[in-house]
Amino acid sequence: MQIPISIRDTGLLGTRGLVALVTNNGTPVARLTAEIDVLSTPITVTAGHALREDADVLSVSVTNQVATDQPVGDLAWQLGTGSGTETIGTLAAGQTVTLDIPTTGLTSPGTHPWSLNLAMPDADAVTENGSLVLVDPAAVTALHQRTITVDGVPDDLSGITPIDLDTDGEVRQIPDWGGAADLGGDVWWTWDEDNIYLTAAITDNVHAQPGLNDTIWTGDSIQFGAVAGAPGEDLTGYYEYGLALTTQGPQVFRWNGGGGILPNGPVDAVDLAVTRDEATHTTVYEMAMPWSELAPFDPADRLLALSFLVNENDGAIRRGWLEWGSGIGAGKNPALFPSTRLDP
Ligand SMILES: [Ca+2]
Ligand SMILES: [Ca+2]
Ligand SMILES: [Ca+2]
């Protein structure tokens, strides 16, 4: 038997917890709970920078978030000096319509504002706006498709050029840095449909990790930041993670979850192995992170701003760090993350 219950409109949006008490002749017999999402509009409009056949596009999605069909008006878009209108009609329950707007004719490199206005038959228009940043393709680092086995032993990554921290990295705040034997190494970022993978072979004369969870940045560890699209397009929806070999084993910690999409704290969904070889002074990190941990990034969109650093502690204090790109160690700024592209 189903009994529909209407909820009083409190004007509050977001997730609401509901509690109902079931009584029989005044005696409580059951307590029911439910969680509901209160939306400001049944229709959402989002847009992101994507690559389609190696061409930059602004990919627009119009989604009916509710369980009933919804008529919608025309979608008017502007991108740089271009503009257009699309007729959508009616969106079925849960349906998403996508539209890829080409960037042909826009200055590259360059920043181009966009705006979207979806007319609604009986309500205010749904509007969104932002910026699309075109990056010189020569300045975009290719991440190759390669699944790895996370066991602390580097897989065969022959044919994939690593990021060589000895030449491509920048040492920060370590005035007495003793060269690559003090802190250096090679890093490979790879991917498949399910995960983004990190393989890092870090040379470091002393492994020291006094921290746990949110303090792992004070010891030898890797920190990385990532956000969908090109750097500078989204300054709040970025992710920041840490990876460390602690006294309690490998730990993954999240300091920023896409601006509130995922909670900050220890992360269980990521597979991490870290092995330390005291004979060769090498620490190997292997990580498989499901794409859901970088939501709403979709690997089919291919463009990911990605930055990382290696923290350095040789037994006393955090001396500083060695970074590829920037925007993590000295201050949080995802506009400084390097631009990367998922390649075959
Ligand atoms: Ca392996
Ligand atoms: Ca060292
Ligand atoms: Ca160290």
TrEMBL record:
Gene3D superfamilies according to UniProt: 2.60.40.1190
Pfam families according to UniProt: CBM9_1 (PF06452)
InterPro entries: Carb-bd_dom_fam9
Boundaries of every Carbohydrate-binding domain copy: 180-339
CDD domains reported in the protein's UniProt record: CBM9_like_5
Protein name listed in UniProt: Carbohydrate-binding domain-containing protein
Protein source organism: Occultella gossypii
